[in-house]
Design goal:
Shape: globular
Distance between the termini: 62 Å
Strand order of the largest sheet: 3-2-1-6-5-4
Order of helices and strands: HHHEEEHEEEH
CATH class: Alpha Beta
Oligomer: single chain
CATH topology: Beta-Lactamase
Number of domains: 1
Radius of gyration: 17 Å
Strand content: 15-25%
Largest sheet: 6 strands, antiparallel
Helix content: 25-40%
Number of strands: 6
């Protein structure tokens, strides 16, 4: 091993690799404004959900974003923005990473979905995913989720997570 390779290897072990935030403070403020406008605007629930999915996708330059409804038995897509419909538009509430987010009532972030057997393959090119539960206004149960996917491994930062969790609080109104 050359001296450069030894130093380079040591350098790489000392520096943790962290995801790059894709949503900054300015984008988050704009995103929350767009979510609120979509909720206050006209149209049915699906139209509002579509506006929200689109705003989320644009804010983080993500490949795909979806809003799902959660019932006692299943998780079903309300709206999405991205290159196509998910392979599983509805599935049992106990399945997949979304099922984990619903059961735990906590955000689930997977840096590489190829390494997680719970991932329900929606798109073959997805590498990382974040699922944020939406809790009803009374704070008693999960009524929806925000699902965002990226083609990049470890695409979601703590800033992304925090921004999407704030969107989920606002989104509770959609499930009124």
């Amino acid at each position: 091993m050359t001296e450069f390779a030894e130093h380079s290897s040591l350098f790489m072990t000392l520096l943790p690799v962290r995801p790059i935030a894709t949503i900054n403070a300015v984008d988050e403020s704009r995103l929350l404004d767009e979510v609120c406008r979509a909720l206050e605007g006209g149209g049915d629930r699906e139209r509002k959900a579509a506006g929200i999915a689109s705003a989320i996708r644009r804010a983080g330059d993500y490949r795909w974003a979806g809003v799902y409804e959660v019932t006692e038995e299943e998780i079903a897509i309300l709206a999405f923005d991205g290159p196509g419909a998910p392979a599983h538009p509805r599935f049992p509430v106990t399945q997949g990473l979304s099922g984990l987010a619903v059961a735990s009532e906590e955000t689930v972030v997977v840096g590489d979905v190829r390494e997680d057997p719970r991932y329900l393959t929606a798109f073959g090119s997805t590498r990382s995913e974040i699922i944020v539960p939406v809790v009803d206004l009374a704070g008693r149960k999960v009524v929806g989720t925000i699902d965002v996917e990226s083609e990049q491994v470890d695409a979601f930062s703590e800033e992304d997570r925090a921004a999407l969790e704030r969107c989920a609080v606002a989104l509770a109104e959609l499930f009124g």
